[in-house]
Amino acid sequence: MWWTGRTGRGRWAAGRGGRGPARTAVRPPAKRRGVELALLVGAVLISVCGYLVVGLARSQAVPAGALRYAAGLGGLALLAHLVVRFGAPHADPLLLPTAVLLNGLGLVLIFRLDLETRDDQAAPAQLVWSAVGVTLFIAVVAVLRDHRVLARYAYGCAGLALALMVVPILFPAVNGARIWIRAAGFSLQPGEFAKVLITVFFAAYLAANREALAHTGKEVWRLRLPAGRVLGPVVAIWLVSVGVLVLERDLGTSLLFFGVFVVVLYVATGRTGWIAVGVLLAAAGAAAVGTLEPHVHGRVQDWLAPFAGIAAGRGPGQLAQSLFAFAAGGTFGTGLGQGHSSLIGFARKSDFILATVGEELGLAGLSALFVLYALLAACGYRAALGLRDPFGSLLAVGLAALPALQVFVIAGGVMGLIPLTGMAMPFLAQGGSSVVTNWIIVALLVRISDRARGPQGDEDARPLRAAPDAVGAPR
Question: What is the pTM of this model?
Fold first, then answer.
């Protein structure tokens, strides 16, 4: 049975759209934005201090670009805050500061790793991509006044997502995967944008068909399987997207799509059996691909025997060096700029940037970083609970699950818990497509949370007038 509520605000809607008690008094928007501004100042100061510490540790001098970095990050944070203050005054005050702090720490870590590769400087380009991401954040918050409008274009989002995933097949593989579009020195990873579009489609379709998914179909082993005509379209699009990603050898994004699909399906139906089915199918698919696909099989072998290269006299591989870095970091780390990240290899600025955190900030720094990601996901889930419309709730859950699942997959791979997948750590790792997409996700969560926490949330019980191409129950 579908239910939503407003956490901590005196309203719970039980049953199918029932209305609860009247809402109690809430904190005025001005106070929320004041809290947000104070947290933003703290996030920028922490990031700038980290930048200075790296420079002092490496050259005993203040880095030459410190002022430019502080002005750039502070200016972006202030612009984003002003747009939220006037465009989404009821939004969760933790979302924007958390994103700014993660982005700022990512710039610090990339600058620190640039010191090991003088001929490959990534921090200036990452700052530019961060500016592009904040610009799109501002555009989404300013232009998208009601998140429910996205439900009208669900099938269009699905088609565009599939097109974005197909295009990289036409380009040469990079590090064994066909996930990049490279032309004239410019590179783009379309799959990063596709994951947001696919999430919109999943949320819209499952919200429109939640009753049929939960209460119709055949029951097999205590699990009610929905009718094929109901679940068929969304499963077909998911299978096509996963198939394309397998052809591109982008199994990390494939696993991410599958995880978001299972999470949103579980929330839409309320049936825990889907979690078990999802885990079993993911394990079966991973075992099959890991056995048949040579590139993935090699990663599985590295995961099963990370120190085999040392025993064979070839020296430690990336995973072994990553495990050594975590061990060297201990509880409090060696200190920013005082580790040996250059030993990890070419992926130290992307996949293995988390190993630099573990070595130089230790277990304490890693724990703080994971808390920030958990806080970002929690804000999304809280917004989902505060909404009355099913689409908004499912969209918030799906968007919050994207970075959460991505962090789990990346951290598990770098720490040797699961095979490596080659994905980028949200906000932290080098990658323009990744940081831009994550800022779009935060913008959508800001818009959704503003709707959930503001007085206009009372209108959510009345759905928007359906457009001709809106998602609806199949006939």
Answer: 0.86
